[in-house]
Write a structure and sequence with these properties.
49% of the residues lie in helices and 15% in strands. By secondary structure, the chain is of the alpha+beta class.
Length: 307
């Protein structure tokens, strides 16, 4: 395999890395594009683009690409946090379908490149990504590079700009946050069955069944990105959420509710005229739903939307 093929074959791994760090497929794609622009000297900022001689001297292109992509993500995380604090309503990580369900084409030749598909595992479920949001940028990068992608702390240190010992502490701190979140959640049984029952109760407009499926302290967070009508503030309380869903059911006569995999776990999508307009991810604790994340922002529904 040629050196250029080796470089381009890194694309999917870089997309996987950047999505976990940023929680946004669009941002991940931009990071990878920027990384390759620096490799091929396609950027105007020549002081950080490689020359032909520098590219030739790099023995392990994959390591260089990973380091650059991670540093670009690290830079973006600070500005992304500021953007999210000023966005309209709540910010929810971008939901992803099962890889076999990605929309990959259309009459216009558009759609998602298969190389942009993110491999689904625990580190991309919605609850996991939300915990990432509570971490510092350095904690997130250290954890994802070391614990998810198995990079040694000596390599992580080059990205974060700290000593290997400091990076070990950062990853350890991130790990404690995740353990606390898992302990708070407790064991989950029958996630798929709970989501299926929720769908049936919603379609039947059964308020009692909905309340029974929701934790009394459940939270519903929605992200419209200022581009779709949705909640501006979270709704807290199982009964309040159930009544809100009942109001939606009363007016959503042209919508179809479907069971789909969302970030590796059973979820629901709402389609209108064959087009996905809402994606729901759930955190199930025991046999009740504790958190619902709904995404209506059309910019975050590209992999779900028929063209």
């Amino acid at each position: 395999m040629s050196g250029e093929n080796v470089v381009m074959d890194e694309r999917q791994r870089l997309i996987n890395l950047a999505y976990r760090l940023l929680g946004s497929l669009a941002d991940a794609e931009n990071v990878v594009q920027e990384t390759y622009a620096r490799w091929y000297a396609l950027t105007d900022a020549r002081w950080y683009a490689l020359t032909d001689a520098q590219r030739t001297d790099i023995e392990v292109p994959a390591a260089w690409l990973t380091t650059v992509a991670s540093r670009v993500c690290l830079d973006l995380l600070g500005s992304a946090r500021a953007r999210r604090e000023t966005c309209v309503g709540e910010w929810v990580p971008e939901p992803l379908p099962e890889p076999t369900e990605w929309i990959t084409g259309g009459a216009d030749g558009g759609g998602m490149d298969p190389a942009d598909r993110v491999t689904l595992d625990e580190s991309v479920n919605m609850a996991f990504l939300v915990v990432f949001e509570s971490m510092t940028s350095a904690e997130r990068v250290a954890f994802v590079l070391h614990d998810v992608f198995r990079y040694p702390f000596t390599d992580v240190a080059e990205v974060v700009g700290r000593s290997p010992a400091a990076c070990r502490q950062l990853a350890s701190s991130a790990r404690r946050r995740i353990r606390r979140a898992r302990a708070d959640a407790g064991p989950s049984t029958g996630h798929a069955a709970v989501v299926r029952d929720f769908k049936a109760a919603w379609e039947a407009k059964d308020i009692g069944a909905l309340i029974g499926l929701l934790d009394p302290d459940a939270t519903w967070v929605a992200d419209g990105g200022g581009k779709a009508v949705t909640l501006l503030d979270p709704i807290i309380g199982g009964e309040q959420i159930a009544r809100a869903y009942l109001r939606i059911a009363e007016v959503a006569h042209t919508h179809t509710l479907l069971e789909r995999t969302v970030n590796g776990l059973p979820g629901l999508v709402v389609q209108q005229n064959g087009r996905t307009v809402n994606v729901f991810a759930f955190e199930v604790v025991g046999e009740r739903i504790r958190r619902i994340w709904a995404v209506r922002n059309p910019d975050k529904l590209r992999p779900w939307t028929m063209r």
